[in-house]
Amino acid sequence: MIDRAVGLVYMPGLEPLIGAPDLVDVVEIEPEMFWYERDGEVALYQRAWERVARLPVPKLVHGVGYAVGGTVCPAQLSLLRRCVDELGVAWASHHLAFNWFGEPARFSGFLLPPRQTDDGVRAAASSIRAFAAAMPCPVAIETGVNYLRPRADELLDGEFVARVCRAADCGLLLDLHNLWANQQNGRDSIDAYLAALPLDRVIEVHIAGGFALDGYWLDAHSGPPPDALFDVLADVLPCLPAVRAVCFEVLAPFVPRVGIDGVGAVLERIRRVWSRPRGRVSTVTRTCTPVTGPSAEAWEHALGSLAIGEPPSTPLARALATDPAVGLLAKLVMQGRAGMVTGALRLTVRLLVIALGPDATFALLERFCRASPPRPFASAESEAFAAWLAGQELALPYLADALAFDLASGRAESTGEPVEVTLSIDPRVLCEALGRGELPQGDPIRVVATVTPGPTELAAPDFRDGVADSNAPGV
Amino acid sequence: MSDSMKSGPVYVSVPSQVFHNFDKMHSVTKEVLGRLGCPGCHSGFDIRFQQEVEFHATVEGKLR
Which of A78, A127, A164, A404 is least surrounded by Cβ atoms within 10 Å, i.e. has the fewest? Predict the structure, then answer.
């Protein structure tokens, strides 16, 4: 039974905390982290999935890849159901946002705010009901972040969430850092947002940290939550009769900076808040009149297209394009895509950065992003980048080898089977040079490399003193 | 053309994470999961390319 639980959203490298006594009661899994796409099919990275299923605490599922807040009915529900069944979760949650738009559906590369009108309420409720019907357990929707300016033709944030929640008859995942970011960025205050919500439907709370960029407070999941957000948590918990878990979110690339002890300290602080609830959330009475304006579908097309870098093609898109947040969203999409390629093609990107320099490499990634639409999985994004890069005629020594090894490595990991690849350099020599920050030297030779998948049980990185130990075994 | 190009291929077997054994910096998450999946589906900021650049800057500094 999950109750008054301290939770952690699973990220690679956090395993030492999950096994520690009295620290993590429940771990929340984002299943799409374990999915990959190849040849148009989405599949489960089986070995890694089995490993996370063995984590010694109860699990929750939190979907990210096919959000439930828009007009596009979420895809891959049968695979999500399989993940939910295999983990035996008490409830599953998803984002009240959209990241697919249009017909045929296109991926936006980022979770985007839905149309906050009556039409948007109907669309989101329909998608949530489809999600709920596919799940064997209760479902909840997460209160989202919205970097856009408030609009006169939309419901207030909290009121929109409340209406969707009631229309879909679902639970709520109250993400306090999203509300914090919205407040910092000039949207609803946290008090006003909370006052509008059906708080008796909140089953789970998220808490996270962020940072400022280009005049916005980002929901970056980059470290400990602000101190003031812990005060909000302490104030709101007594007002949530159905809440059963408070989960901390931090993204894996930030863990080395926070330190594993820093993550543990946040979890201990959450437990102290559970033990000493205080205060009452303020109540604000507001009235919201029905709003119409552009349809949810038109909204998604306009905002989705702008986020992926397309020029505005409708009056709504042209109006939205004047919002500085649209430029921020496009930047975040671009950063996310660059991150996916960097993570999946480590040798290739390292070689490019050494040979061309950071700015030229990022410019190369930008050109790729303009030429090719976003894809939801690093596997597909990296294959697309590899195909595009092959046509750029860069003539960098051993670039093709780095690319071939990276792709073979990804395929071996996703399938669990060895992959054979022909190279013009011993991959160990290539790796050794790039690991030192140098370009490989010497004459080409012909090497047939069999790339084998890694061990099922990977040793976790060591984040002592906030810096990973590069000599940790098995990584 | 090198000798091995003329004489036939060299056969090697290497683990997919071989790069991790040589990488002297924790510039990008080493776990294989960070290379697959849907890590871009969040509402924040992805720093993995930035981390790679930081690695480059550090190595450059060491070399000079």
Answer: A78
